Amino acid sequence: MPGLGDSLDASHQYLCRADEVGPSELRRFKFGKVQIVLINTGQGYVALRDSCPHQGAPLSGGILLGTMLPSDVGVRNYGREGEILRCPWHSWEFDIWTGRSLHDPGRMRVKRYAVSVIGEDIYVATGNKSGLADGTAGLPSSTD
Ligand code: FES
Q: Is it the case that residue 34 has pLDDT exceeding 90?
């Protein structure tokens, strides 16, 4: 494992080298009981908890796609290709930039982790110096 960069502390976990995750690829990482899915968006990296807030499916088994955008009556406007993650079990969809579900963004979201790329190495901020704790800051991660 590479050393931590000057701007990182012990709450950051090394994931992999940047060239190990291709564009639009989903890659699963596991640290104890916590799983993370790392997404190479082609414009940067996003890390989400690899567990759907509905029934716990591994989101790393999902697919990236776009969605229908607001438009005039009778007009179909598809966009945001690669920014929506569809769960493999029941097809709930999540905005990868916010973690919020498309159908209930105010109540349902997937936890996001801040990603840092130092040189060629990717780190994720756990927010907890003891490791990847299940932080709950912000919105609830499920309706339970
Ligand atoms: S477990 Fe993800 S939509 Fe049901």
A: no
**Domain-by-domain residue ranges, the chain?**
23-69+76-128
User: What is the CB < 6 Å shell around ligand 1?
Assistant: 52, 54-55, 57, 87, 89-90, 92
CATH of domain 23-69+76-128: 2.102.10.10
**26 has pLDDT over 50:** yes
Contact 109, 99 (CB under 8 A): yes
Ligand 1 mutation target, pool 48, 87, 110, most atoms within 8 A of CB: 87
Say how far apart CA 9 and CA 113 lie, in whole Å: 15
96: buried, middle or exposed (CB in 10 Å: 19+, 13-18, 0-12)? Answer: buried
Choosing from 90, 94, 101 the residue with most ligand 1 atoms within 8 A of its CB, the one to mutate for a pocket test is 90
| Atom of ligand 1 minimally distant from the CA of 55 | 1
pLDDT tens by residue, 83-95:
999 999 999 999 9
